[in-house]
Model the fold of this input.
Amino acid sequence: SSHWTYEGAHGQAHWLDTYPDCGWKAQSPINIQTEAVHYDPSLPPVEPEGYRSPGSEALTLKNNGHTVQMSLPQTMRLHGLPRVYSAVQLHFHWGSTRHTGGSEHRVDGQVFPAELHIVHFNSEKYANLSEAKHHADGLAVLGIFLEVGNVENPAYSHIFDHLEDIEHAEQEIVLSPFNVRDLLPAHLGHYFRYNGSLTTPPCYQSVLWTVFHQAVPISAAQLEKLQKSLYATEADKSPSLPLMDNFRMPQDLNRRLVLSSFP
Ligand code: BO1
Ligand code: ZN
Done:
């Protein structure tokens, strides 16, 4: 049953009752304390392949009741990590207002208004995400902080301009292909790296996280679209709950070390 929520009786404090992995010792997200990160000069820039031309495969955008998620073709690959990973989907986490938090990761306690996750699986070893997510070396997720800037970000408009077409849970639409690389920060060589988990149930500890240091600007109007267009409930159900504040609280680092690719 996937009736978990972020707040209330089935909220994050209760996830471990149904999903025991959510109570394990290498969970995500985390607060990245920059004083404690370890600079590793051997970490290369992340290298996306095939992000520019997502090909003939249709990109679907879906409101799944927890987030807005876009499917990605396996022809999109990630290099510069210990293995080659293939893309599966991207999705967002956000808050309720411009001035409250919304990101999952934090840097020195700082929250951002939203965070983009691009989810990949280890396609050298596993056939698909469903198989890979059970293994410690199964997934690689890119975490990208979004911040409010002065101008509209056209790359994000490819997604945000269609949110009103999927305002209810389970609704989906087909998008025209666009350059997914443009959703990423300019500097792919500056990131934090650590081993963690899915940030939602079942919280499997199968994710090699790459959290970029540089945030990507979107306009205040774009952020507001993300915050106000979607409902967590299906069209014929009530009450119609707005989909917002879909972020997990920071988890204990425990014995883990966070690496940085930059001094
Ligand atoms: S996240 O990037 O850590 N927020 C994250 C959290 C949960 C998933 C992926 C990324 N879950 C997986 C499910 C799969 C499902 C897939 C959808 O999302 O475990 O069952 O197929 O693409
Ligand atoms: Zn996520």
Notes: The chain has a mean pLDDT of 96. The longest strand covers residues 139-149. Residues 88-89, 117, 119, 129-130, 133, 141, 198-200 surround BO1 (ligand 1) (CB under 6 Å). Helices lie at 15-18, 129-132, 154-160, 220-228.
